[in-house]
Amino acid sequence: MRLRTLIYGVVSVLCLSPLAAQQVVPTHSVSVDMIGLMYGYELPLGDKFSLIARAGTQAGIGYSSSYSIWGGSESRWSVGLYPVLSVEPRYYYNLSKRYAAGKNTFRNSGGFLSIDMQYFFPPYYRRHIEGEGGLLITPFWGFRRVWYEHFLFELGGGLNLSTPDFKSVSVSPAFDIRMGYLF
What we know:
- By secondary structure, the chain is mainly beta.
- It has two helices and nine strands; from the N terminus they run αββββαβββββ.
- It has one domain: Beta Barrel (Porin), CATH 2.40.160.
């Protein structure tokens, strides 16, 4: 209980810190993830916090192979295209430090910690996929850069916690590359 109180206190002080020279700004973007196309809106919630809402399409791609003791083998690719809604609270931990050092902080260019929560609806295209969608929660560390006022690049990594049926949870590594256009 004391740890939770300490965490709430630290987060509250960071949110209200008068030392923050650079603030999070709102942005609209269209981005291409490694395997999807998304529209996103980032809403500032304080000097260092924001909430990003995204909607779009994500692809699920997989390869499986199996071998039998009797010499038979089977391998196949599976593909699905899913409509996705996503909400991502984000904490930009180094905007003030980058701003003080004269580095690029334009449109929230900095390092961040986040928790991306995505809901995948049933796929509108599928090949060798049996799933019907589900929930994916990903704690992330990453960085974001905006160049020439409009070009967005994000790179991040974390841990996927996914539940297709809300009864079981699977864990896997997460890696994300996002390129986009801010307007």
